[in-house]
Design brief:
By secondary structure, the chain is mostly helical. Helices cover 78% and strands 0% of the residues.
Amino acid sequence: MKTLRSVWILAAATLAAAGCVSTSDFEQTQHQVAELQDQIANISRTTSSKAEVQDVNVRIAEQTEMLLRSNATLVGKVDDIESRIQSSQGSLEQSAHRMDRLAQQLAQVQRELEELRARVASLHPGAISGGASSSEVTVPATAPSADPSQIYQAAYRDYQRGNFDLAIEGFTEFIASSPESDLADNAAYWIGESLFSQKKYRDAIAQFDTVVTRYPRSDKVPGALLKKGYSYISLGERAQGIVQLQYVVHEHPRSQEAALARQRLSQLGVETR
């Protein structure tokens, strides 16, 4: 602004010195200077507004970044809480299962004790009473044992819930207590399935081999052979897996496992008849 005034004064002095200044020329020059002053003021206001807008945009960007960081932190905390809850639920389920088993074993022991007391009472009427007796009756100690069918059902429930370690423990206990049971082959198969679900493929293959060799007439044999093929493929032993799947198709062509084997072979690009 001061510069424009100096220019205007200098211009007026120059015109005066030249001897050609008129009232109209002076007024026109003054009018032009006023227009320039207005234009400079407008430019100043516009520049100030742009700076303010830019400053606001910067603040908005900073606040947005802070909100995004806060949101990421909250999401991480929520995920951690959910993970802890799931872990706690799994521990509670395992504890409840063990308590259930202990209760079953305790009930079995109580029944056996009652039976022993009844037998002793029938053989020695005075042995259980509070009276004196010339002979001391010794009740043999019995190891706690649960109903095998309850052990199997509890183990199968553990498998369905994804508690595979407990399922393996229960099925193993069932086979040890009832090796001749009609469900022994099923228990052996579900041990293999539990290992497969845990991605312990090498152990699963060994367990499925046990099903095939120990229970060759079991209806679980096709499933064991199928899962052997799946296990080999998961281990990266593709050729061995294909052989196993082809064996299922050849030996059990009408089974559901054969249909699944054909489907998997087709996915691997292997033609089947």
